[in-house]
Amino acid sequence: MCATLAAIGCGSLGPVAALAPRGLPVWAIVMTVIAAAGLRHSGAGGMRRGVSVQTVTVGGLLLLACVSTLWSPSSRAVATVVELGYIALGAAVIGRWATALDAQEADRAIGWLLSGLAAGTLVFSVEAAFDHPLHRWWNTVPDDLDMDMTNVPKRTAAVLSLLAWAGGLALHRRVGGWAGPALLVVCTAGSMLLSSRSATLGLVAGLAAFGLATLSPLWSRRAVGGVLIAGFVLAVPLGLAAGQTLDAGYADWLFPSARHRLEIWGHAAWRVLEAPLFGHGIDASRALRPEAGEWSRFGTLTDSLLPLHPHNGFLQVWLELGLAGSTLVVVASLLMLSATRRLGTEAQPYALGLFAAGLAMANTAYGLWQAWWMAGYLAAGTMLLAAQCAGNRR
Fold first, then answer.
1. Does the structure show a pLDDT above 60 at 296?
2. Burial per residue of 314-324, b for 16 or more beta-carbon CB atoms within 10 angstroms, e otherwise
């Protein structure tokens, strides 16, 4: 029964991503319960001896986030810590379930995953082509009403661009040859027709890491890890420089949303300097207000210089959790990156591509702590682990 429910859960990812990407936290919670029950039933859910460095690091980050609610100005600070907690728990439980699958169970799971992704992509394509009729119906928006639906396809494109890596590995295990890489190339080309530039950037960055990993997984890991470390080290000085470049009028050649990013990054970098050690508190980005008379020159949805989050994961961690949080995030991320060495030879390029894609999108688009976005990472990573366990049918 648990195996059947888990397979259905894998298959539901595509439709959920296409129609209700903000519903992914519900998927994460339900799958955590199913995975826990499956592990208990199979006897694979026993306690492991010792505590890993990864667990200690993530635990330290959660503890810092929890303590930072004491000085965070956000009314959602506690809720954000709760969301971080159940996503971390889900990653541990669903990840353990995915790696404990035998080849037959994994075949069934990825079969459902591929079918679901195909269905979700088809539904999303029809939605995009006909101005989102299902979303209009669900939100009771009249057909003749001009409605800004840009965030709908952007969220879906972002989640699908993460799930594409698990789908690529699943297809590779089933078909072999160039099926997996071909899927990724098709997804990248298709993303260029959509409004989400961050999804395209993520897929392109992922393909670069994937290509390098096919030649040398070691050098791909080093390259991605180098970008990660450089991003955290240089985030604040580059953010300050971005703001100065914009103020000097040297960024007029950029499109408006890119100039808006530079403005946000410049302001966020200055706010980091106000609390460099422990930050302004978890989720503080949405609550920090500019000084009187400081308003955005490029914002479309809000006039704030810091709309909900800095649209840059490096700066968001610095801003909210300071040097302490940035150090913990770097260590946890590098440990996760290093863990890709334990994957099979075929799986490593897909895992490194996913890591690079997620890193690129996390620093250009959504807030790190948005529950649906964290759940998207969780889903992509755990489904990739499940795909690795599948039998190779070539």
1. no
2. bbbbbbbbbbb
